[in-house]
Amino acid sequence: MDPEVADLDVINTTLKSGIHRVTQLLNHFNMINTRQLNVRALFEEAQDVKDISCRLVSEQETLRPIEFVADVFEDIEDVVCLKNICSVEYSLLPIEDWSKAQEKFELEQIRRKSDSQKTEPIPEAPTAIVKSFKHVENQAKKFNEGKIRVVVTHINDLNSFYIQKYTTLDSLKEMNGAIGKRGRKRAGMEEFKKGGIYGVSYQTKNSCHWRRGKVIDIFNNGENIIYKVNFIDYGNSQNVTKDRLKELDLHTVKRPPFAFECKLTNPEARVFDDKVHLLLPQIIGQKELYLTFMHPQSSRVTVYEVELLVAASNGGFISVRDLLNNTSPLVPDAKDSLLLTELKLFKNGKRFTVGQEETVVVTYVRDPFYICVQLSHNVKILQKMQADLEKFYKDTPVISCIPVVDSDVIVKYSDEFQGNWHRAKIISVDVASKKVGVFFVDWGQSTVVSWSNLRLLTENFIKVECQGIIVKLSDIERLDTSQNWTEEATDFLREQLNKNKECRMVASGVEPLQVALFQLCPLSDICLNSLLVESEHAISTGTISQTVFWPHAIQELPQDDDDMSYQMMKKSEEVIMDGYEDIHLMTGLKLQVYVIRFDSPDLIYIKFAKYKETEDEMHKEMQIHYSKSKLKTRSSWKQGEHCIVFDEDHSDYFRAVIKSASDSNNYVVYLYDHVRELKVSKKIIFELDPYFRSYPCYICKCRLTNIRPAGDPGKWSHTAIEMLEKIFNTYTTFHVKKIEKNTNDKMIGVIMWYSVTTPAKALQPAKIKYVSINQSLLESGLAFSASSLTNGPSAGTEPNNCDDSDIEKNKKQNWYDIICEDERYKDADKPDMHDMSQVKEEICIITQQSWPKPFKFKSKEFDATLTCVVDQGIFLIRTEDVQNLYLDVETEMNDAFESATLLSNANSTWKVGDMCTIAYDGKWYRGSVLELLEDDTVSVEMVDFGSEHVVPIKSLYKNIMFPDIPTLVNKIQLYDVHSSYGHWRGEDVDKVLRIVTDQVRVEIKGDKDVEVPLAEIYLDNGLSLNDMITQVCPHMKRRECSVVLGSVDDLDVSVDDMSKDATSEKTSAKLNGGYTYVWVPSSFDEKQKMFVAGILKWDLTYNVVLSSAEDNTKTPEFIRLCETVQMHVGNQANLSKIEIDTACICLHPQKNTWCRAMVYNVDSLKFGFVLAFFVDYGMVEMVPISSLKEIRSDWLEFPVHMQIAAVNVQLLQNNQAEYMLAQLNNLHGKSVLVEVVTEVPLKVHLYDDKALCYQKFLDNGIMKAL
Predict the structure, then answer these.
(1) Which residues cross the membrane (predicted)?
(2) Residue 381 in 3-state DSSP?
(3) Which of helix, strand or coil describes residue 44?
(4) How far apart are CA 711 and CA 726, in angstroms?
């Protein structure tokens, strides 16, 4: 051999020897637990091997240089590392203090001990060195008695199972990977001998991995030679054939096994069931497992007696033996230094004092005595932490723990509002069922979860203290103190708390924390403690729960003023507030107003506060319209003409009336919305759009009634006017009550009040006192008392005690009808239905003959409460506003009559039409006499229900309340429902009563202002009552094409008498594959408000997905339907008939769930694909035909809210097609008004208020309307 040519065999032997030596060193250090490690000697040994020449070259140019890569020496600091053990103190020994002899001796000892195949004797060492080494052994022995983290790889029984050290898992994985990459040689049967160690393919049902295995038996099963192998690194065995074996290199063969056979120690000699070891995987699975050797480790021991310990949630350990005995209490060992010390959450450090106020978010309500709140300013911090929890534990491998009472953990628990991962405290443990009770420290709820849902708490999530604060409502008590809070009380409280995201909380006591909770409202907060008492869910035990409305400080108290008029105002104010009880304030209807301008107490211009929002919206629209539109002017204007004027001082447009011509170029105009005149050039006077002229003028003229000037008759003094001006400039909140009317001057006489607020204290509401301006002028001597100039009562008398002539004269008009009869003011004549907290009325006796007529409907579509069903398809309903008003009236009446002393009705005489109050079933109702019957009975109508009753005459009273409030019920009649008999039968009404719901949706067809409008009525499940009545009553027909919206099988009605024609009509009326639709399009209907769920483009046609509901996919009914579909879809056959509009079940490609769908387009059918329209989500997706299945008939009956309609336009400029689509996509998610052009096919126009949504494209010639 050429001396310059490397001997590859020698190099290979050298490399193998060095690598084997270092590898054995590393493995040995992995196994022992010595406290002394000569890192330098180990590094030098590794460096010697690394420095061996290992780049091989060849004279053949075709061969690339071969380089030996020793991965084990890369990043040596990562391979050899020191584990920090908390219980051990470390120190560095200087090099100069090292004993070279001792150093070499220790390294040699380690080498000899690790290389078991070598038997040469260990050289003797000096006495000092031996003494030192014994010290090392003692230290190692002591450490062996500690806890080592392990994993269990195979279980035969409690006396035979195999474990691996957790620290060796990476080495084992690397070794198995190398075995898998090693090639297989051709070999005969003699190469795989009994007792040999080979690479074995370990196969399971779902995986295949290469491992080391020792052949323990060889036999022939008649077909193949079978090798029984034991996987020495795992402990289990398997029979394999020859093709699953491969030879291994000597180094891999000689590596010691990674698995150790152990048995569970049992010092108490407990008797376990024979199959108890089957529970072991359940106990130790997905948990940190530790092991303690019961005896010193020795190479002579084949089976180690050990104690298995599972990590507990408090940082300690639980014995597996205790867990196998289900009845044993879980008492963890003392916390071990190998684990982190127990992590505890910090308790909420917030401290409260009586009267302290905080804004809070309520997270959980168990009952009024157990409410969990969070401080609002901490919510964002908590939300960030919850997001971090979700991210950390969602992506972290499952490592559970054994629960210990009173320890803190992380819990996986899904809540709609609080998320999926929560910090919690363990409050109970059930070992038998493996369940644990936890308390969520951040939001107050307690629940029971499985052990597998627990995770160990980490340091990242203990920095934020517990956010949940438990409080109880103060000054209330249960109706029955011997019972728990009723479900009705708790549900009522939750319902009220859900109305507001935040609440105001005031502490009224500590230890325990007792509070008052308030709903935040603009003017006055609502005390929930009092609301529970008022709703009869609790009783009051203190002052806090006796006041519902806690007003804010509406305005700051005025500063002192030396002006005489101010001093007179304050003096009269003190006198009135100290001793004056204003009877007018306590009775009748009063309205909040704004004072716009005044001339004297006899002429004040006001606006009603309830119309401010409407007027502001009108003004805003007007500015937008006239700033963008091309304005039309005129060369001349006539007196009295309406116009729009641009006020340069305010830079705004205002409505006005031409008052006079100043000259040929200028006019004097009257801004009637602001009660002022303006001289302007005709260049800035523009024509008034009819839309803005349709809005009424909200200005109303009034005068202070029952007073007259002191001094000159008919002339108010300057001091009186100055005092009035001072009042209007100082205060901002005013109320009026109508006392008289003056139709000639279109003016009303009123009593006017301003409010003075005493600032609120912590546990006391702000007190608002009303001061009568009329009385202030009297007290200051600037006015004299006077009777009303028309028919109003004098000061000090009740407004309802009017004489008969006045009542008879005005019985057809209410006071709010006389506010102003001018056409401009006709919309200001309705009482404020949203201010009924101020409606108070005394019981009185009047000669009025009839109740005022009901309110007119404000719109054609609304939700309503059904009160009564009468003959001929007539229903009596209340709109939402009227329903709220009725509830207030009912409460006031019942409270007043229960405590009132009523005049005897024994000798009362009654006649038909008399107004009365009816005592019926313990309640009081407004009524009218219909008919006098025999036996001292009378037929009456409860006017707020529309129902007739026969009652004893002694239950009627002349005493009434609220004579000026109209009857609180309206009549409607079913639209397009006709009886073939010409009339309704009694049994028809009975059938209606059995299917109708209390809450209905009403759509008026035609004129809404007639006495009995025609209407389509929809029940609370979305089904049309008009259609349903034709199903349950065969003689009822609809002349127009009707659509059945539901199955009669779902109704609680007998259908035996239904004809076959009615049944066939029901079947044929289904649309689009048999789905039932909430919205039935009709070209005869007015525009419908719909939501745009999607925009589709097909060729040059634009389609829009319309929905009658903003989102119907979150209702419990729909969720149940989805669950049913997922559960039973496997029983459905593939769709056999694939045609457009065929209903089916389809696998949604994005959601990966089965959803209701309809075939939308079949152009790609020959390629195995179709377009499917998912009817509940408004999406069109391309799907394979294999994803289509037949739909069950009952799945069709759940109402569909979405339909596809074509936009009835034609694109004229094809190059604008994509731009047009992008603009239409802006409508997605918005509500529009839909006008049906044709029903089949469904074509529509889309409107934004009054204009088409695409009007600008029509104007620009991009498209045209069809």
Answers:
(1) none
(2) helix
(3) helix
(4) 21
Radius of gyration over alpha carbons of the chain, in Å? 45
Quote the pTM value. 0.40
C-beta separation of 975 from 1026 below 8 A: yes
118 burial level (CB within 10 Å; 0-12, 13-18, 19+): exposed
| Strand 1014-1018 versus strand 970-974 pairing type | parallel
| Backbone dihedral angles phi then psi of residue 65, each to the nearest 5 degrees | -60, 140
Greater confidence (5 vs 148) lies with 148
CA–CA separation, 607 and 620 (whole Å):
18
288-301 exposure pattern, b = at least 16 Cβ within 10 A, e = fewer: bbbbbbeeeeeeee
> Average of pLDDT values for 466-472?
92
Coil, helix or strand at residue 827: helix
> Quick one: DSSP state of residue 683?
G
**List of residues 6+ apart from 246 with CB closer than 8 A:** 179, 182, 183, 184, 185, 198, 199, 210
Write out 110-134 in H/E/C secondary structure: HHHHHCCCCCCCCCCCCHHHHHHHH
**Is residue 749 within 8 Å of residue 799, measured between CB atoms?**
no
**CA-based nearest residue to 1235, from 1210, 1211, 1208, 1255:** 1208
**CB-facing half-sphere around the CA of 697: CA atoms within 13 A:** 23
Angle (CA) 51-56-59 rounded to 5° is: 150
**Does the CA dihedral 999-1004-1009-1011 come out positive or negative?**
negative
> Exposure string (b/e) for 160-174, b if CB count within 10 Å is 16 or more?
ebbbbbeebeebbee
Q: What is the number of alpha carbons within 13 Å of residue 461 lying toward its C-beta? A: 26
Q: Return the structure tokens found at 424.
A: 């919690």
Average pLDDT, the chain: 76
pLDDT grade, residue 1096 (50/70/90)? Answer: confident
Q: Which of 1063, 560, 1022, 613 is nearest to 832 (CA)?
A: 613
What is the spatial distance between Cα 57 and Cα 59, in angstroms, rounded to a whole number? 7
Return the closest-CA partner of residue 722 out of 860, 830, 563.
563
| Cα gap 352→925, rounded to integer Å | 48
- The Cα–Cα gap between 1046 and 1024 comes to 8
Output helix, strand, coil percentages for the chain, rounded to the nearest 5.
30, 30, 40
Whole-angstrom Cα distance, residue 824 to residue 652? 22
Q: How far is CA 769 from the centre of its chain?
A: 40
- Strands 1231-1238 and 1088-1098, by their bridges, are antiparallel
Q: What is the pLDDT of residues 508-565, one digit of tens each?
A: 888 889 999 998 877 678 889 988 998 889 998 888 888 887 876 544 444 555 566 6
C-beta separation of 1176 from 1155 below 8 A: yes
| Residue pLDDT, tens place only, 846-897 | 666 788 888 888 888 888 999 988 877 899 999 988 888 888 888 888 888 8
Least Cα distance to 722 among 871, 823, 600 occurs for: 600
Is residue 728 within 8 Å of 773, Cβ to Cβ? no
- In whole angstroms, how far apart are CA 352 and each of 348, 419, 442, 505? 11, 29, 18, 11
Backbone angles phi, psi at 254, to 5 degrees: -85, -5
Judge contact between 41 and 25, C-beta under 8 A: no
Extract the tokens encoding 904: 């005897």
Q: CA-to-CA distance for 1097 and 443, rounded, in angstroms?
A: 48
Q: Report the distance separating Cα 589 and Cα 829, nearest Å.
A: 13
- Nearest residue to 292 (alpha-carbon basis) of 30, 33, 24: 33
Question: Do β-strands 1188-1189 and 1179-1184 pair in parallel, antiparallel, or remain unpaired?
Answer: unpaired
Other C-beta atoms closer than 10 Å to the C-beta of 1067 total 9
